[in-house]
């Protein structure tokens, strides 16, 4: 299965959701058409399509209220994820804007968001998060429902952008990093081990970026810009491998010094034993000589 096989079409809707039979042609970017209100979507604000960032509006406020059953745990009313609890305290930065080719109507959007926790997390992040300085490759290629590449700051276990987090496709995002390993206990050589772990994470991220670029170009050998970027990340991977080799050589040198130190300690202990034996022999010889001289005098 290819990297984007799970959701190759931004218009794709989960098979369990109703189809947008009432959806006509998507509006032009920036338009916010007033859709005829039905009993099923009477309280849902109008949707905006486009590519530009919009100030927070009615739809952003609607998302911020988190009036979705998937967002709450039973009758307790508690939010079902740490990410939702974290983002619910953040102010809205922009309105929720769909890509121009995503033809969801209000009721489809609502049911899609309420179908799984990742979807409502994705929508809320799109509203409150930080716009990425460098959009990830999937966002540049037009994947996902949202118009912007938006990330979350201050939560290291949530690194994918909002668009890639939709339907749980975090690993395809070039901003994504695996959660940090918190199980390692302090020990000798921890610094070298930590640096090795960081390099391995960076290597994995570089490989994912290469794979994303290859999938996104569809094997098109004429994509000069993509080939150049692959060459850059490949050079970075080569440098990281060299750094890892230096670390391993340093560790081997430390191990060699440790063996030499242990050998010196054994030699010192042997010399101390020999000196003790020699001292005992000298004391015995001296005592025997005094005894012999005293016997001859008598």
UniProtKB/TrEMBL annotation:
Q: Which domain of life is it from?
A: Eukaryota
Q: Where is this region: Disordered?
A: 1-37, 174-196
This protein's UniProt keywords: Coiled coil
A Pfam family of the record is DUF3716
Q: Give the InterPro entries listed for this entry.
A: DUF3716
Quick check: keyword Coiled coil in the entry?
yes
The residue stretches assigned to a coiled coil in this entry are 247-274
Compositional bias ranges of the Low complexity kind: 15-29
Report what the protein is called: Uncharacterized protein
Q: Which organism is it from?
A: Penicillium concentricum
């Amino acid at each position: 299965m290819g990297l984007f096989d799970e959701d190759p079409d931004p218009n794709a809707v989960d098979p369990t959701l109703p189809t947008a039979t009432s959806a006509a042609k998507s509006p032009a970017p920036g338009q916010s058409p007033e859709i005829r209100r039905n009993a099923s979507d009477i309280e849902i604000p109008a949707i905006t399509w486009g590519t530009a960032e919009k100030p927070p509006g009615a739809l952003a406020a609607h998302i911020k209220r988190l009036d979705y059953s998937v967002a709450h745990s039973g009758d307790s009313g508690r939010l079902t994820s740490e990410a939702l609890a974290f983002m619910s305290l953040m102010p809205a930065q922009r309105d929720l804007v769909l890509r121009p080719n995503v033809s969801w109507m209000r009721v489809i959007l609502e049911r899609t968001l309420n179908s799984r926790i990742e979807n409502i997390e994705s929508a809320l992040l799109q509203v409150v998060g930080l716009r990425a300085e460098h959009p990830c490759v999937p966002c540049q290629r037009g994947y996902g429902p949202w118009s912007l590449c938006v990330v979350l700051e201050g939560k290291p276990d949530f690194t994918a952008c909002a668009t890639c987090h939709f339907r749980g496709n975090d690993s395809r995002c070039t901003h994504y990093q695996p959660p940090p390993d918190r199980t390692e206990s302090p020990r000798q050589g921890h610094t070298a081990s930590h640096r090795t772990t960081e390099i391995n994470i960076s290597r994995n991220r570089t490989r994912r970026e290469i794979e994303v670029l290859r999938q996104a170009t569809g094997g098109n050998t004429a994509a000069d810009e993509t080939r150049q970027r692959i060459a850059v990340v490949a050079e970075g991977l080569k440098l990281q491998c060299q750094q890892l080799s230096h670390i391993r050589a340093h560790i081997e040198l430390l191990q060699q010094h440790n063996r030499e130190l242990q050998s010196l300690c054994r030699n010192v202990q042997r010399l101390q034993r020999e000196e003790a034996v020699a001292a005992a022999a000298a004391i015995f010889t001296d005592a025997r000589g005094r005894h012999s001289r005293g016997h001859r005098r008598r």
